[in-house]
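for the record, two folds in this file. i put them one after another cuz i was lazy. first one right below, seq on top, structure tokens after. the second one comes after a little note so u can tell where it starts
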Amino acid sequence: MDSPVGRLTVTETDGAITAVDWNGNAQDETELLVAARDQLHQYFGSGSHVIDLPVRVAGSTFLIEICAAMSAIPAGETRTYGEIARNLGVSAQAAGQGCGANPVPIIIPCHRVLGARDLGGYSGAGGIETKVWLLRHEGAAGLLI
């Protein structure tokens, strides 16, 4: 699907969303992929900033835990890598690396995690500019003005 942050490809595996990529390879349309497209269109439009889809993260226990921590951050709010790290008992650097390894960006909102003194990074297409766009879109832009 086309979006304000580029062309996105959502991947479904066995009834769960498992990836969001920029310019990835499209799958045949399924009910879940149609629902994902509809919810993402609402997210990018003037509708809801809540995306409620079944998601499965394949990877280490740490990646699963950090993705769960990011998923718990409400739209319009942010956390720091340090806050996430303290809650998981890891270093801020490890939290940053985990955020960067998020296989389902936007749906799992890694853009809501910031550095203590800066925006941190963003591994999606467009890098930090995409992160800034997403934060402004969600109304978390007070810190960016």
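(here's the note) second protein begins now
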Amino acid sequence: MSLPLTPSQTVGPYLALGLPWPDGPDVVPEGTPGAVLVGGTVFDGNGAIVPDALVETWQADPDGRFDHPDDPRGAATPPVAGFRGFGRCPTGDDGRWEIRTLLPGALPGQAPHVDVSVFARGLLDRVVTRIYFPDHADAHGADPLLASVPGARRHTLLAVADGPGRYRFDIRLRGEGETVFLAV
């Protein structure tokens, strides 16, 4: 007897059942001096919003350090109280996500950046990208990952200033203007 193939399981759309938590979008508490908002909209391959994705961020503190034993320089207590380096935000009905954080510091040999994972329906695994900031443009040329991306696609890794203390970073999962995703 031969059975048909079972359909592949995707990473969504049931993310809202257990992955988000109330303060997930707050890498730093509200009112933290120097805090910025980073967010945007997640789009699918047809340019439609994705209302049920989950965006995770992981980043160094403003000194470019991690409070983690795997930091090659050793774990370091963040210089700002309440900084946890990790955020998780589901998209809303409008496809928008937003985290409250501090701009990261540079890691050895890398421009300051925020690592991003996106989970969404239709994806068989998360996709991973980075956010680089206009405030650190002088360091972009020396970043090996950013330098390896074809010039015509680098803009998909760059946040855009969107008012005082705000940065916009839209994520396009496929199609025209697709965000550069990393093979990890």
